[in-house]
C-alpha cells in the first residue's frame, strides 16, 4: 500500500474512532492516547495526519454538520414548492426548527460537541469550516428570501444566523432542562408557536435596516 493510501486509511480510522468517542461519551472524553490505542497506531503517527487535536475535532464536527444538513434537506425537499408562498416558507422554517430539535435530541453528545469545542490559545477557526457552516445556514436563508425579499444577501445571511441563534437557545435550554423540565412534545409546540408569531411579523419592510447597523447578538 502506498504511503498516501496508508495515511488516508489512518485518517479515516482516527475520524471514525473520534466520532464514536464523542457520540458515546462526549467531547471531554476525547484523548489522543486513547485514539492511538483504539486504532492501533503510534501516538506520533496521529500528528502526521492531523497537526493537532483541534484539527481532528473540526473534521468530526464537520461530519455532524453534514448529518444535520442532510436531515434538513430531507425535510425541505419533501415539501418543496417552485414558487413558495409566505405560508409555505414559514412552514419550512418550522420544519427546519423541529428538525434541529429532533437531531439534537437523538444525537445530543455529537450536537453539543459543535458548541463545546474550545480551541487552544492562538488557534483560529479554519476558513473551510466557516464555509461549511454557511452551507448549512443557506437552508434557512432560502425561505427568508420569500419572507423578506427586500433584504440583500448579507442582510439575509445575518438574519438567518440570528434566527438560528434564537432557535438554538430554545432547543439548548429545553434539552438541558435548566429553566424547567420540558418534554420534547412541549418543546415542539413552543417552536411552532414561535414561528406562528414570526409569520405575523416577518413582513417585507419598506426601509430595511442595514445589516451593518444591526445590534450584535
Determine the number of helices (DSSP H or I, runs of at least 4 residues): 9
Low-confidence stretches: 208-217
Write the H/E string, N to C: HHHHHHHHH
CATH superfamily of the largest domain: Tetracycline Repressor, domain 2
Structural class, by secondary structure, is: mainly alpha
Q: What is the level-2 CATH architecture name of the largest domain?
A: Orthogonal Bundle
DSSP strand content: under 5%
Write up this protein.
The protein has 217 residues and is mostly helical. Helix content is 72%, strand content 0%. The protein is elongated and about 60 Å long.
Provide the fold topology.
Elements: H1 3-25, H2 32-39, H3 43-49, H4 53-77, H5 86-106, H6 108-116, H7 127-147, H8 153-176, H9 184-201
In short:
The protein is mainly alpha-helical and 217 residues long. Helices cover 72% and strands 0% of the residues. It is elongated, with a radius of gyration of 20 Å.
